[in-house]
Amino acid sequence: MKIFKILILISSAFLLMNCASKKTSDISYLKSSKALVESFPELNVFKTRKSKNNPVVIFIHGGYWNEGNKNIYGFLGRNFAKKGVVTVIPNYTLSPDGSYDTMAKEVAAVIKWTVENIEKYNGNPDQIFLMGHSAGGHLIALVGTNPKYLENTNLIKGIILNDAAGLDMNSFLEKYPPTTNHNYDVTWTKNPENWKDASPIYFLSEKTPPIFMITGTKTYPSIISQNKDFVEKLNTFQPSVKINYQSKKHIPMMSQFIFPWNKNYKEIIKFIDIHK
Questions:
Q1: Sorted alphabetically, which keywords does the UniProt record give (predicted)?
Q2: Spatial separation of the C-alpha atoms in residues 153 and 58, rounded to whole Å
């Protein structure tokens, strides 16, 4: 996609200016994946050069569950590391080589790897936060709520949803059954029982980690409506949570993080400081 090429060029420019972090690339976090093809997903770590025991953000990228790459988002890792937040950015098996369940299990494996290894990169394994944009927002919300993915949700101190898609895929797919478009027939399968299993809104509970939400007012209507429904149900357990609306379309909700002075960094770090 053209937008991804633009992001790579801009992030490369910022990389040259930023000496406050160290990137370690292409670390394997799984020996194999239960994908439809042989898959050995990897991750990048952005280590802050500050003292040890820093909070950690695991960022999961979006892209309709069938596109995207960890290397596009170096700007986010660099900017967070500069602000004292160690950042982990993984790849995961994309559709049609894996379903939502494959992806969610791999996100859970990233969390496990982070707990076991992040101290080597100046991160605190007891201060792990999940962040995701679009499809990545869906995956972190699913892993953080559906108990089949994490036995202990206390591992996650908070969830940061940036224009998250797919928070209620069940309702969406009941109206628009999955087709080959965007490989949805593989991502969600054609089994309606899986659609509910894939929908974070049905797993919200008192065990759900604290959530911070930002949503674009110019994004896709389905994202706006599902985010509203999600926070309405979430308020049963976390009554103070509200959607932080921003006057942006879907892609700019992510590309704004290219700039280290973007106000969202301040708000997210405030959320991290409260809950770490």
A1: Hydrolase, Signal
A2: 15
Closest by Cα among 205, 142, 149, 186 to 168: 142
pLDDT 10s per residue in the chain (276 long)? Answer: 545 555 555 555 454 445 567 899 999 998 766 666 666 799 999 998 778 899 999 999 999 999 999 999 999 999 999 999 999 999 999 999 999 999 999 999 999 999 999 999 999 999 999 999 999 999 999 999 999 999 888 899 999 999 999 999 999 999 999 999 999 999 999 999 999 999 999 999 999 999 999 999 999 999 999 999 999 999 999 999 999 999 999 999 999 999 999 999 999 999 999 999
Token pair recorded at residue 58: 């695991």
According to CATH, the topology of domain 46-275 is: Rossmann fold (3.40.50)
Place of tokens 């910022």: 14
Count CB-CB contacts under 10 A for residue 22: 14
Residues in the chain: 276
The domains of the chain are located at 46-275
Indicate the helix (H) or strand (E) that contains 132: strand 123-133
With contact defined as beta carbons under 8 Å apart, do 43 and 53 qualify? no
CA distance 159 to 155: 11
